[in-house]
Amino acid sequence: MGRVKLLGIPLLAVLVFGLTIGVRSAAAQNKTAKGTIKAVSADSLTLTGADKDMTFAVDKDTKVQAKGAGTAAKAAGGTIAITSLLAAGDKVQVTYGGTGSAMHAVSVRVTQKAPPK
């Protein structure tokens, strides 16, 4: 019985430590980009940043944080097209994963809406 406790405690500590590292690693893989939306479509978002354009894939899992977005989604039955929430000229912060041409927008937070035309 004593041996089981002696082996079980370090083993449990290793498991807990290993799991927390895995969670941190997944979160650390997400990056952020800030800029102005150049173009938005049903499946992509192009952002003009300080030094270059970046294009992100968007899908039903991409979260949009914008003033009135929740109300608009509720009025539309729970989901709303990203093109109804975002527009060219909006200033945003994009949290994304992946690299190169495989960048996927996890979330888009509108920091300033474009002035109405």
Based on secondary structure, the structural category is alpha+beta
State the separation between the terminal residues, measured CA to CA. 76 Å
Number of domains: 1
What is the number of helical segments per DSSP (H or I, 4+ residues)?
A: 3
| Average pLDDT number | 83
The CATH class: Mainly Beta
Q: Please state the overall shape, judged from the principal axes of the Cα atoms.
A: globular
* CATH topology label: OB fold (Dihydrolipoamide Acetyltransferase, E2P)
User: Per DSSP, what share of the residues sits in E-state strands of 2 or more residues?
Assistant: 25-35%
What does this structure look like?
This protein has 117 residues and is an alpha+beta fold. It has one domain (31-112): Copper binding periplasmic protein CusF (OB fold (Dihydrolipoamide Acetyltransferase, E2P), Beta Barrel), CATH 2.40.50. Helix content is 33%, strand content 33%. The chain has 3 helices and 6 strands. The chain has helices spanning 2-29, 69-75, 82-85, and strands at 31-40, 44-48, 53-57, 63-65, 91-97, 104-112. A 6-stranded mixed sheet has the order 3-2-1-5-6-4. Strand 1 (31-40) and strand 2 (44-48) form a beta hairpin. The termini are far apart. 13% of the residues are buried. The model has no long low-confidence stretch (mean pLDDT 83).
